[in-house]
Amino acid sequence: MLESLWVVLDMHFHGFLRATGVTLQLTFVSLVLAVVIGLIFAFLKLSRNPVANLLSHAYIGIVRGTPLIVLLMFLYFGISSIVVLSSFWAGSFALAIHAGAYVAEIFRGAIQSIDHGQHEAARSLGMARRTSMRLIILPQAFRRAIPPLGNQFIIGLKDSSLVAFLGVSELYSSAMTAAAANFRPFETYLIAGLYYLVLVLIFTVLVNQLEIKLSPDRRTAT
Amino acid sequence: MNVIETRNLHKHFDELHVLKGIDTAIAEGEVVVVIGPSGSGKSTFLRCLNFLEIPDEGSEILLDGEPIDPARDNLDKVRERMGMVFQHFHLFPHKNVLDNITIAPENVKGVPRKQAKAAARELLEKVGLPDKEKAWPSQLSGGQKQRVAIARALAMDPEIMLFDEVTSALDPELVAEVLQVMQDLAAGGMTMVVVTHEMGFAREVADRVVMMDDGLIIEEGTPDRIFSEPAEERTQAFLGQVLHA
Ligand SMILES: Nc1ncnc2c1ncn2[C@@H]1O[C@H](COP(=O)(O)OP(=O)(O)O)[C@@H](O)[C@H]1O
Ligand SMILES: [Mg+2]
Fold first, then answer.
1. Integer angstrom CA distances of residue B173 from A128, A203, B124, B170
2. What distance in Å separates the CA atoms of residue A194 and residue A204, rounded to the nearest whole number?
3. Residues of B in contact with A142 (CB under 8 A)
4. pLDDT at A222 over 80
5. I need a surface site. Which of A73, A117, B13, B119 has the fewest CB within 10 A?
6. Dist. CA B36 → ligand 1 center (Å)
7. For chain A, what are the domain ranges?
8. Based on the number of CB atoms within 10 Å of its own CB, is B169 exposed (0-12), middle (13-18) or buried (19 or more)?
9. Which alpha helices (DSSP H) does B28-137 contain, by range?
10. pTM of the complete model
11. Residue B38 CB–ligand 1 contact under 6 Å
């Protein structure tokens, strides 16, 4: 068995690596968009404007209440009479819209978790509401958001496998194709799983590094 | 010349009537200590002075003789002219000591970084922490944090400083170092409104002691007069509790 695992790995190593590149592109593009979307909707939800509030609630509610695969199919096939998106971009947008809702909740929670005294101290120094948000609240909220964001990003990385159903040759899709051709589903999917696992582990380390980098006060003084 | 004057200052929190008509004036260079039982409205009074709380309609607050209208005036500009120090410090934990002090002058007043840093170092000297500029707030004792908070407020070069129970959260052995900084500040001519239970400080530093109860100033006078012959029964009772605590 170990031998056949080796054979399959040898056969698909490079192909899977290329597909991993596509997976990473999908993940990266969608998560950057998700952060932008998440920030916007976090502010809308925190805003005192009832229309903004409603918009944000509706968006988050809809995303939470529908499976990602439905959104994927909808953006690729469902609206093709209005806009035609390439499978890569339909996939990226769907992943972004999906993750954006969770990112919005993460940012909203992080912003609300900052002690109100921070904002008051900033205001007492003459800072406008925006300045206080930009210089005092958001930097602290970002730092606090990193662990849950990292978690969400890992979910996003794994969710990108669903884009296989739009025909994008990312990692999972390559695994399906390979397994169908080599009649070795056990080894093939095991290897694909390992590729994902390694990506997630690397990513976890990067997130931890980022958290340390953004927490200068928790390092020892120099 | 009065730096700040309030006329008929009222404040409601929904149904709760917290300030019930405060009339007072604080002269340039004057140190006013505000005392009174918990819940009497001392913090709310201070917070109305710099519009962290918006006073009720009909209240008047004058800064350097100019009435401030919260609906029209830019309150950020108004707050630039007043420093405030809080019981719980509220230092910015993501900034080191020096940046805590420079952040407002740089970003609110547009003071160049170099100049802001030089001024901050002078202030750190003044509050007795010249070697702490690179420290993070989390590495400081309570007394050190509070002295940085005072320096941070002073960095905006305010006309008046507001202190809200700034030693109440400190371990007893750290109180003196903070009071000393405040005393130096008073000696330097700063106009100050100080809410505190430190009667020794009031006796030594205050020009005037104001006793608040239930949203009103019930009596005021020199510290000597208030402490030796309080006119109001509620003042006597309050002082009795604080002094014998
Ligand atoms: N933001 C607020 N919302 C509602 N009630 C408040 C608020 N701030 C203060 N109060 C109430 O106002 C009263 C006076 O409070 P405060 O000014 O903090 O008194 P003090 O500083 O003298 O202890 C208290 O009953 C307090 O519960
Ligand atoms: Mg108080």
1. 37, 47, 21, 8
2. 15
3. none
4. no
5. B13
6. 13
7. 2-221
8. middle
9. 42-49, 75-80, 97-104, 113-126
10. 0.89
11. yes
Amino acid at A3: E
Which bound ligand lies closest to the C-alpha atom of B211?
A: 1
- Non-local CB neighbours of B32 within 8 Å, separated by 6+ positions: B24, B26, B192, B193, B194, B206, B207, B208, B209, B210
Count of other CB atoms within 10 angstroms of residue B114: 9
Three-state DSSP class for B2? strand
pLDDT of residue A2: 75
DSSP states of B211-230: EEETTEEEEEE-HHHHHHS-
Residue pLDDT, tens place only, B106-134: 999 999 999 999 999 999 999 999 999 99
Residue type, A65: G
C-alpha span between B234 and B217 (Å, rounded): 11
Distance CA A171, CA A177 (A): 10
CB-based contacts of B64, cutoff 8 Å, min separation 6: B1, B2, B3, B159
Q: Provide the angle, in degrees to the nearest 10, between the axes of the packed helices A87-113 and A2-46.
A: 60
| Residue-wise pLDDT tens digits, B184-194 | 999 999 999 99
CATH 3.30.310.170 assigned to domain A2-221? The reply is: no
pLDDT of residue B1: 85
> Across the interface, do A221 and B139 touch by the CB < 8 Å criterion?
yes
pLDDT by residue (tens digit) across B134-171?
999 999 999 999 999 999 999 999 999 999 999 999 99
Distances (CA, A) of B80 to B120, B139, B155, B176: 17, 28, 10, 28
Residue of chain B whose Cα is closest to the Cα of A135: B103
Which positions in chain B touch A131 (Cβ < 8 Å)?
107-108
CA dihedral (B226, B228, B231, B237) in degrees, to 10, reads 90
Q: Which residue's structure tokens are 């009479």?
A: A81
Q: pLDDT for A173-214, tens place per residue?
A: 999 998 898 888 888 899 999 999 999 999 999 999 988 888
Distances (CA, A) of B205 to B45, B46, B149, B182, B191: 21, 19, 20, 9, 12
Distance, CA of B11 to chain centre: 19
Q: In what order do the strands lie in the sheet with B82-85?
A: B82-85, B160-164, B191-195, B31-35, B208-213, B216-221
